Every structure is written in structure tokens, then in C-alpha cells.
Amino acid sequence: MKHLVRALVAAGVMVALLALPVWAQQTDRSEMDDWLKMSQKQGDIPVGTKITMQNWQQYQQFMPLGMIKLFQGVYGWKMPADVEMD
Fold first, then answer.
1. CA–CA dist 2, 49 (Å, integer)
2. Cα dist from 57 to 10, 14, 37, 53, 73, whole Å
3. Half-sphere exposure of residue 78, counting CA atoms within 13 Å on the CB side?
């Protein structure tokens, strides 16, 4: 019985791990292309800049696409309302 339970748990974990990339694939290629165009001429953020929910859009060219999605709040995870990044 122990072996059956272990086998079932192992099979469940394998199915979940194999399905993970499918669940995570919610960004289409056009979004990635837009991000690449936007971020290709970055420049520098001034020292002492604070990025918050109120001003993050003006600094999105410096952010990876995943961070932009967190600020947008389009997925289950999102940046908290009081986020402040130095």
C-alpha cells in the first residue's frame, strides 16, 4: 500500500511539473516583440529614483517583461499597492 501511495504521489508531481510550462505560457510573442523594441534603448535611471505603483510606467523600459506584468496585475501575482523600489 505504501508503494502505491508513493507511486501515485510521484505520478501527480510529474504531471504537475510537465503541465507547468503550459500554465505559465500566457504571454504571446507579440508582447515579447513589443518589449524588445521598448527596452532596446535603455539608458540609465537616475540614482535615488523610487519606482512606485504611481510612476512605474515611465520606468518600464528598464524592467523585464515579467516585472511589467506584475505591475500591471494581469496574473494571479501582482505588486502590492505600496511597493517602492529604489
1. 57
2. 43, 39, 15, 8, 13
3. 11
Three-state DSSP at 23 gives helix
- Residue 34 and residue 49: Cα distance in Å, rounded? 25
- Residue 38's Cβ-side half-sphere holds a number of Cα atoms within 13 Å equal to 16
Q: What is the pLDDT along the chain (86 residues), one digit of tens a residue?
A: 655 556 555 556 666 666 555 555 566 788 888 888 877 777 788 899 999 999 999 998 888 888 888 999 988 889 999 999 98
